[in-house]
Structures are given as C-alpha cells and as structure tokens.
Design a protein that fits this description.
Elements: E1 2-8, H1 11-23, E2 31-34, H2 38-48, H3 60-87, H4 95-121, H5 127-133, H6 138-149, E3 153-159, H7 165-174, H8 180-184, E4 191-195
Antiparallel strand pairs: 1-3, 1-4, 2-3
Length: 198
Amino acid sequence: MESVVGLFPNVQQAQVALQNLQARGFERDHLGFALNDVVAENDFAQATGISPEAGAPAGSGGTIKGAFMGLLAGLVLTVPIWLLLKIIPDTRIFSDGGLYGMLFGGIGGLALGGLFGALAGSDHGDYVKLLRSMGVPAAQAEKFYNGLKSGYVLLIARDPSGARTDEALSIMRRSGAVKLDDATGTGELQSERSGHGH
C-alpha cells in the first residue's frame, strides 16, 4: 500500500482534490483528510462523505512528555520563590519551607503533567506518528503536521496496488496542493508519495 499526502490552503481546494480523485476512480475508503478545527472537520466530512483521518495515539510518549513538562513547570514556579526566601535575610528562616514547596511543586507538576499527557495522548492526535507509519520520512512528517497546525487541510490518498500513486500526486498538484515548505515557512515539494510495500 502506497500513500500520497498533500496540504491544501483551504477546504474548497481540498474538496476539489477529493472530487477529482474520486472522478478518476479512487475509492472513498482509500481517501482521508485532517483539519485542525474539529467543527470544520465535521462539516467537511459531511460535505464530502469522506471520513476524517485520525492520528495515531501518542501512547506512553505523550505521558512521559507531559510528566516532564509538568515537573519543569512546577520547578519554574517554585524555585524562584525559594531563592527569594534564601536571599532576603528576614525570610531565611522560611527557606526550609521553600524546599518543601519546591518538592511538592515538582511532584504536583509531574503528576498533573503525566495525567494531561496521558489524556492528550489518547485522543488519536499524533499525526506525525500516523504519517511515519505510512512511510513518510520523519522530517517531512513534522512539516506536514506543522502545516496542519497552521490551518492547512491534510489529504491522504492510499493506493493498494501502488500503480496509481503518480496519478494521485498529479491530481493533488493540479488541485492546488501547496509546496510543503511554503506551508511551514521555506519552499520545496508539493506533496509526498510514500509507501511501505506494494
């Protein structure tokens, strides 16, 4: 199965691309899209009859990242207060309490960050992981995801035989797929063909 991925600046151009792909015989089940706006994504799905593409779950990586960020936030909030208690002569007697504040701030941040990381990781929002599983190189998967976060529409056309990927790529380009780096800030390739076996 090979896949072609493209970014479109607006839903109208993405809708035209989907219509053109279907007109050339690409089956609805092999097409997908993603939008950063959940309401617009739902409207687009109803208008096209194409199901939105769910990103892969972040899994334990999301939990670990959340816990680390929470710990960091807890320390950033408590260390300056402890330092002030240490520096100001009249408050030095409270500096031991400041150490406990840092400890509880770090533990609380770690726990809350891990919790929110786990919740965020379960929402099928990891599009980089999804694109990587389709064979898109890591750097390009990140660029596609950055484009998606910037408001672009991500389209995916899967070709089970691998024989029509060039055609899908050509249809996306003619339908207005933007250059990948233009969507993320630099200027290179219009869409990407990827695959992992035919």
